[in-house]
Specification:
The protein has about 260 residues and is an alpha/beta fold. It has a single domain, classed as Rossmann fold, CATH 3.40.50.1010. The chain is built from 10 helices and 10 strands. The strands form 3 sheets. Strands 4-3-1-7-8-9 form a 6-stranded parallel beta sheet. The radius of gyration is 28 Å and the shape is globular.
Length: about 260
Amino acid sequence: MNANYFFIDGSALTAQIRQLQRAEPTYRERKLCPREFLTHFMMSLQHLHGGSYKRATFYFPQGDDAAVGEYLRMPDHQHPGEIRDLHFKFCGQKLKKSAEFDKFVEESVPSKFQSRFAKSEKGIDIEMCCDALRLASAARLERLFLLTNDGDFIPLCRTLKEFGSNISILHLSAATAPNAELLREADSYDVVSTNALNAMFFPPPVEGAPVLGESGGFTREGEVALSAEEPTSEKPETEPSDLKIVEDPEAPDKEG
């Protein structure tokens, strides 16, 4: 029986994407593909899940669809084969002016103090905890792969371990400093490697494209990158003329 689950704290994921984009300009204007994200961990952590999982759930606040689409390349549910045990759960509530507040905290407050600020949403962590405890209490949860950096999940980690489940904390990149107290309650901690990280963001970077800040920006999705080579003439090549220059016999001698 598949008893491995992936729970992704959507707000933590988008926050880590923003931090990555600030640290690595080549990720700006690109979106994370959830399927590639999940595929990476299925390949790299086989020693923990044995190559199988039951479902991966991404948790986002209700009414936050536009913000989610800004950072994630959402799959087309009507396209055959696009979804494979992947669920996007919209629950809880996003508070007003959340984007402004999140930007202020992420850009102005040191990471070690960010957990002390009130969150710009409510109900998401409760929903995640309820889902996890429901599985664990029915002996249907062997290992929970949890992407978050929120210390509020520490009691959940302790309780799940009492039920006999394992906890694996995931992070998108090293650009986000991990919560040390949360990691002490986890059974493992893994971060996406640099090479794998680049492969799960779309569109792929344009080879030779300028980095943001060096020449004003870089190619956006749907735009064509300009060539660095010199422009060539659009005129067709012509054969040399077969006309000969006839000298005027009455013209004065140049040597004279």
